[in-house]
Amino acid sequence: MGYRISEVERMLGLPVTTIRYYDREGLLPNVKRSEGGQREFSDADIKLLQVIECLKRTNMPIKDIRRFSRLLSEGDETLEERRQMFYERRETVREQIEGLRAVAELIERKCAYYDAAVAAGTEDGVTWESIDELFK
């Protein structure tokens, strides 16, 4: 069954402009066109769009996603290369998570600092040392 771009937009929550961009950039090499030139997306295209969005959320560059799409269309002889790409992405995501944990900790400390300052009505007397005590 073929899906129109508006249906894909609703299914995935992706703007039509983004879907068109991905197609123009060669990320969706197998999207068919109707006689009238409209894109017709298959279930496989939908799954690929979901993977593309996942990879984008890891900050993978478009050129690398394009490479993945090309490898995918080349078949089983590229399995190892595609697997390696996902192992690299996994490591990147783990590093991002660790970075976000550090950011979250700093934000928690700043919230505690401002909670104490607001409760006191002043920043006078509120120190990082007193806030650090809350996190031990």
3D structure, described in words:
By secondary structure, the chain is mostly helical. The protein is built from 6 helices and 2 strands. The chain has 2 domains: 1-74, Multidrug-efflux Transporter Regulator, Chain: A, Domain 2 (Orthogonal Bundle), CATH 1.10.1660; 79-136. The chain has helices at residues 5-12, 16-24, 43-57, 62-74, 79-120, 128-134; strands at 32-33, 39-40. It is elongated, with a radius of gyration of 23 Å. The termini are far apart. The mean pLDDT is 93.
Write a concise synopsis of the structure shown.
This protein has 136 residues and is mainly α. It has 6 helices and 2 strands.
* Terminal-residue CA separation: 58 Å
Any idea what the CATH architecture of the largest domain is? Orthogonal Bundle
Query: How many helices in DSSP terms?
Result: 6
Q: Determine Rg (CA atoms, Å).
A: 23 Å
Average pLDDT for all residues: 93
Shape: elongated
The SSE string, one letter per element, is: HHEEHHHH
- Strand numbers in spatial order across the main sheet: 1-2
Topology, number of strands: 2
What are the low-pLDDT stretches, counting only 5+ consecutive residues below 50? none
Share of helix among residues?
Answer: 55-70%
Tally of separate domains:
2
Q: Roughly what fraction of the amino acids lie in strands?
A: under 5%
From the 3D structure, determine the CATH topology of the largest domain: Multidrug-efflux Transporter Regulator, Chain: A, Domain 2
